[in-house]
Amino acid sequence: MIKEDRHKLIIDTLMKHESIQVSDLSSLLGVSTVTIRKDLTELEKQSKLYRSHGKAILINPYINNRSVNEKELLATEQKHHIGMAATELITKDDSIIIASGTTVQAFARCIKPIHKLTVISASLKVSQTLGDNEYIDIVQLGGTLRHSSLSVVGRYAETALSEFSCSKIFLGVDGIDIDFGITTTDIREAELNKVMMHAAQKTIVLADSSKFHRKGFSKIANIDEIDLIVTDCGISDKIAQHIEELGIELIVVDPAK
Question: Which in 33, 136, 220, 244 has the greatest CB count within 10 A?
Fold first, then answer.
C-alpha cells in the first residue's frame, strides 16, 4: 500500500473511531509501527490529526486562549439553538448565574422573560445584553477584567458569590473530556467557575459539539459534578451514551429543525 493510500485509510479510520492506537493501525495496514509513526508525524504536520501517548486522535485536544470576538464567529448557529433550548430551563421568578463565554452570550440573547428573573453575571456582554429588559434584575460581579473574554475574575468576584444562593448556573466551557472533566483556558476563570458552582443548586453546561474531546489548561470540575449538558447534534452517539450512563441529563438540539 502506497503512502497516500495509507494516509487516507488512517484519516477514514479516525473519522469513524475518533482515536486509534499505533499498534492497531500497524495491524490494520500491514506495516511496521515505525512506518505508522512516520505517517502520523506527517499527517500531524498537515494538522489532520494529533498524536498522543502512542495513539492518533482526530483533533488536537488542547485549546489555546482566543479572544471573544474570534470565538463569536465559530458555531454561531449551533450556539443560538443551544441558547434557545437553555431558556426553557428558566422558571418563573428564577435566580440564576451566567458565567462567561460566547455560548452563554448566545444564551443571554435568547432570554425574554415575562416574569421576574434575577441574573448574577461575570460577563460584561451578558449584562449589557440583558440590561434593557425591565423584568431582569442583574447583579454584575466586580473584579479583574479579562480582556480576551470581557468578563471578570478574581477574589472580589469570588467573595461576592458567597452571599448568594441560586437555582442554576449556566456555564460555558472550552473543553469537555469524559475522563478529565470540564475545562477552560484561564486558571482564574476556572477558580471563579468553581465558586459559582457552589453557589448554585444545579450546574448546566452549554457547549457546542466541537468542545468534546478537548481540554483547556485549567480544570473546572469533574464530569460527574455536572447535572445537565445542552449541546448540538454533532455529538457522537458514543459520547452521548457515555454521558447518559453517568447519570447526566443531556439535551441535544438540531439546528436543521
Answer: 220
- For 247-257, write each residue's pLDDT tens digit: 999 999 987 76
Query: DSSP label at 101?
Result: S
Nearest to 64 by CA among 218, 220, 234: 218
Q: Is 163 helix (H, G, I), strand (E, B) or coil?
A: coil
| Whole-number Å distance between alpha carbons of 40 and 154 | 41
The pLDDT tens digits of the residues spanning 162-199 come to 999 999 999 999 999 998 999 998 889 999 999 999 99
- Give the closest residue to 255 by CA, choosing from 53, 29, 85: 85
In 35-64, which positions are buried (b, 16+ CB within 10 angstroms) versus exposed (e)?
bbbebbeebeeeebbbeeeebbbbbbbebe
| Cα-Cα-Cα-Cα dihedral sign, residues 204, 80, 191, 175 | positive
Dihedral, CA of residue 128, residue 152, residue 119 and residue 204, to nearest 10: 120
- 8 Å CB contact between 243 and 178: yes
